[in-house]
Amino acid sequence: MEHYFTNNQDLKSEIREINFSYDAYNFMFKSDNGVFSKNKVDYASLFLVKTFFANNERSYNKILDIGCGYGFIGIVLSKVLKQHVSMCDINKRAVHLCKINADLNEVDVDVFISDIYENVEDKYDLIITNPPIRAGKEVLINFIKGGLARLNKDGEIWFVISKDKGAKSLKKELEKDYTCHLVGRSKGFWVIRAKN
Fold this sequence. Notes:
Layout: E1 16-22, E2 25-31, H1 43-55, E3 63-66, H2 72-81, E4 85-89, H3 92-104, E5 109-113, E6 124-129, H4 137-148, E7 151-162, H5 167-174, E8 179-186, E9 189-195
Parallel strand pairs: 3-4, 3-6, 4-5, 6-7
Antiparallel strand pairs: 1-2, 7-9, 8-9
Helix pairs in contact: 1-2
């Protein structure tokens, strides 16, 4: 079975468009086979973005969207916050689409291929992610704990996770070393903010 966190060069391309509005901002995304939530904006990603905007009380100089897919989270943040966002994913097709979508939506981003944090060289004030739950618990933990190691002082990582896919145990594990807050919950999803 093919997953959105793998690369299948032989997968047939079927480009489609996804339209999305947030406040006064209108977005258009190109999507394709082989990427996460190819037909619509994923509810968990949407909930993460809306929860972030509703509860964020500070500004961030450096932002990373990891596991960016075709670019929904990072592009919306860049447009609304009017600032630069770095974005990465292991999926080459997703990264290609993300670059196209950045141009379409006229945002200031840089997009690159990375297996989790393998090619991430900088440190950030904010890392935001809807991690690939289907990739397994070890990958999920690497997304979050690996991100906490790449935060600047007082940096934060915001992520969304299904309550039924290990949210409680992950939050409990993170609380051994980090400050964690459950910022929002909806339809079985939790948005958690962790600080180093």
